[in-house]
Amino acid sequence: MKRSRRGIELKSELEIELMRESSRIVATVLKEIAQRVEPGMTTADLDTYAEQRIREMGATPSFKGYHGFPASICASVNNEVVHGIPSPKKVIRAGDVLKVDTGAYKDGFHGDSCITIAVGKVSPEAERLIRAAEAALYAGIEQVQAGNCLLDIAGAIEDSVKEQGFSVVEDYTGHGVGRKLHEEPAVFNTRTNDLPNVRLKPGMTIAIEPILNAGKRFTRTLKDRWTVVTVDNALSAQFEHTVLVTKEGYEILTDRDRV
After folding, report:
1. Which pLDDT score, from 0 to 100, does residue 4 have?
2. Is the four-CA dihedral 119, 20, 70, 208 of positive or negative sign?
3. What domains, with CATH codes, occur in the chain?
4. What's the rounded Cα separation, in Å, for the pair 204 and 202?
């Protein structure tokens, strides 16, 4: 593993292969959850299933115990933006917008990904929000190529979201991922001058994760100190992939279509 001047780790071929495996586990679990979820289940049911499957595949849950987080997935429903704690009291209902975020750690490396699931028949606004969030993710991914900069990703995401009339949550960003769940650099979803505009290099592995609100972009954290919600009670949606920068462009390591 090489380290750039800004402390960003560039993975070797062997390390990339290890990340492919941890990311494959994440993709598998999320794909299975998307196929499995139905009204009447609880978010704790999904957490139990995710942890069991992650461990069956020889990995450990990246999230469990991370800064004290008590579960293997974040399960955020409707106006919950991120970091929802699974609970046996939280019943999933038809029409819900369910975000499931998880990570797996195996052989020294993490994979990280998030999906938004429309539970049963959702409202037209919810359906449009979910589609827009996924489109924003792929707009950002399309900018991943050696020589481009992080703000190319951010700008593509911001423009895609604005075109659909939604707002981008600015309180949370994507990040580098590898030996640590969160590494440098921060991967913004809007244009910003807050951090250096890092140029992408082959071997970089980043988690791109736009979060969209149907209303205003502002959020607040609940008393549990984890669950983040929209201030105006509007719906929120999120998608995330772990992406490798290659010499030719990019590889989506957590691609669910490949598992």
Report:
1. 54
2. negative
3. 2-253 (3.90.230.10)
4. 6
What's the confidence (pLDDT) of residue 75? 98
Task: Determine the Cα–Cα distance for residues 209 and 187; give it in Å rounded to an integer.
Answer: 8
Tokens of 119: 């539970």
pLDDT value, residue 196:
74
- Written as one string, the DSSP assignment of 142-204 is TT-STT-BHHHHHHHHHHHHHHHT-EE--S--EEE-SSSSSEEEEE-SS--SSS--PBP-TT-
What's 121's DSSP letter? S
Q: How much is the pLDDT for 45?
A: 98
CA dihedral 207, 7, 250, 259 (to 10 degrees): -50
How far is 210 from 195, CA to CA, in rounded Å?
18
Which pTM does this prediction carry? 0.96
Q: Roughly how many angstroms between the first and final C-alpha of the chain, as a whole number?
A: 27
State how far the Cα of 142 lies from the Cα of 157, in Å rounded to an integer.
10
Q: Name the stretches of the chain with pLDDT < 50.
A: 5
